[in-house]
Amino acid sequence: MATPASPSPRKTRATGRRSPLASVSLLVIGLLATGGAYAAFTTSATAETQSQTTSLVADGQKLFAANCASCHGLNAQGSGVAPSLVGVGAASVDFQVGTGRMPAAASGPQAEQKPVQFTDSQIAALASYVASLGPGPAIPASDYLQGNGDVASGAELFRINCAMCHNVAGAGGALTEGKYAPSLSGVSAKHIYEAMVTGPQNMPVFNDLNITPADKANIISYLKYLDKHPSPGGLDLGNLGPVSEGLFVWIFALGSVVAITVWLTAKSN
């Protein structure tokens, strides 16, 4: 009697499907690789930036010790002849040094503008060093310095906040005790903005709660408009307003009338 054949083992068919764990594993590996690469790149870039900042601050400290410490003190803590610079910010240094007002040539009612003593890179180093001493106004972003804001709004803001010292046309004017508000004609947009946030000399500080950055940009736009569009009325007498115009009328116009009258009377006699 024949022995029945044993059944052949079943062949397992390949379905072509991956295990769900494989997809999850690949996703995790991809995320870890991407995150690791990003972290390494960011850490490298941050370290490089910190190194550059540290180097800039060190250069600024050397420049400060050689050119500023005699008045402001070795640690910028101030002295009997100059104020402390702790907390004035980079904007104050960039304005004062970038316009030549500092280092001061001599003590007086106020520091006068003169030729700049340092290069742009040296000014940046000095500003970085002083900024490292304490928080203060930073150098403004270029977005607010383009001069493409609302000129009409800027003119109104300037008349309300600035014209009583600088004149409505930014021509400047005299103050008390030998001090003065300088002309704003030809002043760079960056230095105008920095003056508003730092309040140099007798100027008040206009922080972002007083005048927003956008409104500061509008004021700059108005002043740049004046630079590009001089007075269309001919002789502007320095844009000094009704006082100079009145003096001109009294001295020259009425003086001419009086002189002609005297001459005609003398001739008739």
Automatic annotation (TrEMBL):
This is Cytochrome bc1 complex cytochrome c subunit. Residues 55-134, 149-227 form the Cytochrome c domain. Keywords: Cell membrane, Electron transport, Heme, Iron, Membrane, Metal-binding, Repeat, Respiratory chain, Signal, Translocase, Transmembrane, Transmembrane helix, Transport. Pfam families: Cytochrom_C (PF00034), Cytochrome_CBB3 (PF13442). The keyword NADP does not apply. The keyword Signal applies. Its EC number is 7.1.1.8. Residues 1-39 form the signal peptide. The cytochrome bc1 complex is composed of a cytochrome b (QcrB), the Rieske iron-sulfur protein (QcrA) and a diheme cytochrome c (QcrC) subunit. It is found in: Cell membrane. It comes from Lysinimonas soli. Gene3D superfamilies: Cytochrome c-like domain (1.10.760.10). PROSITE patterns: CYTC (PS51007). The chain crosses the membrane at residues 247-266. It catalyses: a quinol + 2 Fe(III)-[cytochrome c](out) = a quinone + 2 Fe(II)-[cytochrome c](out) + 2 H(+)(out). SUPFAM superfamilies: Cytochrome c (SSF46626). It is a multi-pass membrane protein. It comes from the Bacteria.
